[in-house]
Amino acid sequence: MIRRQIAKNRSRIKKLGPGLITGGAGDDPAGIVTYTVVGATTGFSQLWLLLLSTPMMIAIQNTVAQIAIVTGKSLPEITTAFYSKKLSILMIMVLAIANILTIGADMNGIAEIFHVLTGYQTIYFLVPVTALILYLVLFGQYKTIRNVLISLTAVLVVYVISAIMAKPDIVKVLANTFIPHIQSSSAWIIAALGMLGTTISPYLVFWQAAEEKEEKKSVVQADDVSFDTVVGMVYSNLLAYCMIITGAVILYGSGANIQDVSTLAQALEPVSGQYAFLLFSFGIIISGLLAIPVLAGSTAYAVADTFGWREGMENKVSDAKGFYFVFVGALIFGNVIDLVPQISAVDALYYSQVLDGMLIPLLIVITLMISNNKKIMGQYTNSKFNNFFSGFAFLVTVGLSMVMFYQM
Predict the structure, then answer these.
(1) pTM to 2 decimals?
(2) Who contacts 35 (Cβ-Cβ below 8 Å, separation ≥6)?
(3) Span 50-66, pLDDT tens digits
(4) Beta-carbon count within 10 A of 131 CB
């Protein structure tokens, strides 16, 4: 009995894929800046919000994964078939703009780190980074790409090491994790909006749904998919948790004016030492290489599925021209954003979060309608856990959207 359970667990670990990649991609350079700034500006006081957001993330991602493996179709395909193609087009337009802005912010983050490390201007690093990503996607097999992404996800554990090296007060950390601390200051509220807006992102919803479809898993593998999703989301929030702790210990109360990756890295070095600074820099580069293909890929999947094009990274470029055209176009436009002096990485990050805030409540409503529709899902309708926490996430994200519009 015990041997069978051990063998089953080993088998599950080997099957980790889309959920783990999705979780790791959620902690992109833009997210790293957001989480570190949350710690720098509010200390440990928002750690409990991450604990609250974890079941919401699991419920949403589990729902879209279940839809994908039961139907074998993506969200745009189902929305077009059962509801409205105009609704699908609206979704992917908002998603594409938000993703391209985030790609620009993430590209800028990687280039800024290389600038700090080498002294060369950021423009010299944009093309090589883009070329590396394109090479992995255009000339590699899907299985190779998948293994590369999973490997990159594992490397992000450097942020756990960074948090341990910061030597936080464990009693204060635990108290702020399990006891809600709410402040009325505008800085605290803005930080909370940024953090929750970063953990629940539309592009992760589209990416995991498309990847589960591409994995071609059956409903009998639903438990493995759920396990993969839970591991990915818990891992994602564990990394975010450690980033907030590091920012709180090193920068809270320091008066550092943090506006982007470069100023954040420069603020870390004199107070945390060279090793912590190098760990942070290494994490930014790795997380960017992981997140940018996911951002561009989720855009390409969504556009291709909406218009009925052949899609998927297992296809050659000549067999899925539209899919790869959108993928490459998203990367190019992300680079263009960094070359336009009137658009800063901070602006790109801010407006992408505004668009995400508009889109995620709509996505939650659509996924709940699909996942509870017996004509689509048959006997595999959504669980009470997924319905409850997805509904709760809807209320939270609607509230966030309202506050963002008020702030604007």
Answers:
(1) 0.78
(2) 27, 195, 198, 240, 243, 244, 247
(3) 888 889 888 888 888 88
(4) 11
